[in-house]
UniProtKB/TrEMBL annotation:
KW Transmembrane (keyword) present: yes
PANTHER family in the cross-refs: DUF819 DOMAIN-CONTAINING PROTEIN, PROTEIN, PUTATIVE (DUF819)-RELATED
Name recorded for this polypeptide: DUF819 domain-containing protein
Residue ranges crossing the lipid bilayer per the database entry: 12-29, 41-62, 68-88, 100-119, 169-192, 229-249, 269-287, 299-317, 329-349, 356-380, 386-414
Pfam (any one): DUF819
Keywords: Membrane, Transmembrane, Transmembrane helix
Leader sequence residues: none
Amino acid sequence: MPNQVLIENDAVVLGILFLILFGIFKLAESTNRFLVSFFKIFPPILLCYFIPGVLNSVGFFSGQHSGIYPFVSKYLLPVCLLLFTLSLDIDMLKKLGLKSVLVFLAGTLGVILGGPLAAKVVSVIMPEVFTGKEGGELWRGLGTIAGSWIGGGANQTAIKEIVKPSAYVFSQCVAVDVLVAETWLAVLLIGVGYTKRIDNWLGADQSLVADMKAKLHDYKTKNERIPEFMDYLTILSVGFVCMGIAYFFADLIVPYISANHPSWSKFSLTSVFFWVVFITTALGIFLSQTKVRELENVGASKIATLILYILVASIGMQMDLLAISQNLGLFLVGIIWIFIHVIFVLTAAKILKVPYFVMAVGSQANIGGAASASVVAGAFHPTLVSVGVIFSVLGYSVGTYGGYLTALLIRWVLA
């Protein structure tokens, strides 16, 4: 990246990031044929990563020296995780059926086991990928991919702050994450046009999807309402209070572990952010079983989604796109990894005889998160968009834990 940058003032950079986000999503709403076709190939979330990445790479601004990402990751990320997890609706998951949840979890298992297997295969056939200083640290970057592919961008950032890959490694891994994930999204969307054929091959009961449509339509009609000022204040208060609680206890736990169990540092247990994410997610799961979950009816996850895209843009502005070309073998890891995930979800769908809709949304809720899972669900029927959100929230709930476990497994198989 160039030594000199054009814009150094973070206030200006933040304004540019919001302008980018607004421009992307405003254009994505257009009915213009060219733009509709364009966004089918290049989904908004892909552009949210890569436009700031391009600007960073050409020296328009410096993500590495900016204070935006540290602020967003430290203060807004825990709130984002909390608000997403808050909308975890176990009753609705029950209505969707055990088979649907099992297919989703099969995809999660495919990511957890697929990462170490893919890394091991590539280390054998292309050992140079994992050699040298940067290669030896790749398990950290691959762990962030696992966090993203089990949960979403918020989990990815949480893993990044826990295992701390270098900016160079992280740039490479974000590129693998986004490009491979968006390619799989395109495949799933193409498959929507062949739903009947795929369902016949799976031996699926298509009445399951019809039942989902009816249940979700009734739920939305009965519970959703227009938010007021106190609703927004309550949502943000819950988020930031829980973040404060998480930091309070993390500041007590970390010094104790550092003094009494210093060897636990190899598991990142002496990282303040590890405990912040752990406590925040646990609080979110607990509160989702109380009346606090009703905040979802006035837009808790929408606020979380806005924070998530700010987070995605701030991650993008740390990317050095020139670093991507330095280790193209890493893309082979991603391709093998996603292939293993696909085997897991396809096998589960075949055994359980669930429709392609469940398989596609369950898979994308893992690999792409709430935004793209909703896109896949909506491609079947607008009423089903919330299914993508529900599964994605489940992913956000386990994404950090699963991603962290995957990172440790990758480090173990490469040792």
